[in-house]
Amino acid sequence: MIIAVDGPVAAGKGTLARRIAEKYGFHYLDTGALYRAVGLLMLKEGQDLSDVEAAANMAARVGEVSPEDPGLREESTGGAASIVANNSEVRAALLQYQRNFAHRKPGTVLDGRDIGTVVCPEAEVKLFITATAEIRARRRFDELIAKGNSVSYHDILADLKIRDARDQGRTTAPLKKAIDAHLLDTSKLDIEAALNAASVLIDNRL
Ligand code: C5P
């Protein structure tokens, strides 16, 4: 079984996808980390983020970035990721890895932007997670403050809106709800309620 969890930045996809994977004993893939790894390599090597060829070459080297690299979680890396994610060669280079992962047994949960639409249109359960921009920015702000970063809520909100627009506006695999995806608005649901709602849909397909 493949479970696709898509949605905009900081909607709560990662937390929900991890909880689903834990509950059902499925493998979990954070596909954003692949784009972040490309963005991080570009930043580390001082490449121009709009250099299509350099980014495509970096996509072949994502295995060099440790999942534990703290640079992966930085805001600057997220911004770089959303720029290189616009590059169709980067997307094509990362596609096969994601598809192979998706077919691992006994099941998988993938979170990202285009899992239900492009990577795994055949997924048995598709969830599209949203929340208002203000709530998502507030969560990201609280998370960064808790980690000891000094950031401004307004900068986070502005940055999040730019990333949303970039992810929704690109021509290759834009962020959008698959027609057969179930919408979960986490502005109104806490993680336990979201997990319960997802579990009902999954249990129906097991
Ligand atoms: O999910 P996360 O915020 O870590 O993803 C970082 C960036 O990678 C996103 O802003 C998006 O542009 C890109 N991404 C994507 N497709 C995915 C996952 C992430 O384009 N499946």
What does this structure look like?
Its EC number is 2.7.4.25. ATP binds at residues 7-15. It is found in: Cytoplasm. With 206 residues, the chain is α/β, with parallel strands linked by helices. It has a single domain (2-205), classed as Rossmann fold (3-Layer(aba) Sandwich), CATH 3.40.50. It is 53% helix and 12% strand. It has nine helices and five strands. It has a five-stranded parallel beta sheet, with helices on both faces. Helix 7 (133-146) crosses helix 8. The longest helix has 17 residues, at 153-169. The model has no long low-confidence stretch (mean pLDDT 96). The structure holds cytidine-5'-monophosphate (C5P). Cytidine-5'-monophosphate binds at residues 9, 31-32, 35-36, 78, 81-82, 85, 112-114, 163, 167. Cytidine-5'-monophosphate (C5P) is lined by residues 9, 31-32, 35-36, 78, 81-82, 85, 112-114, 163, 167.
Shape: globular
Q: Supply the helix-strand structural class.
A: alpha/beta
Provide the list of bound ligands, each named once. Answer: cytidine-5'-monophosphate
Largest sheet: spatial strand order: 2-3-1-4-5
Portion in beta strands: 5-15%
Low-confidence stretches: none
Helix content: 40-55%
Extended strand count: 5
- For the termini, the CA-CA separation is 8 Å
The helix count comes to 9
Overall mean pLDDT = 96
Question: What is the CATH domain class?
Answer: Alpha Beta
Radius of gyration: 16 Å
What is the architecture at the second tier of CATH? Answer: 3-Layer(aba) Sandwich
Largest sheet: 5 strands, parallel
Element order, helices and strands?
Answer: EHEHHHHEHEHHEH
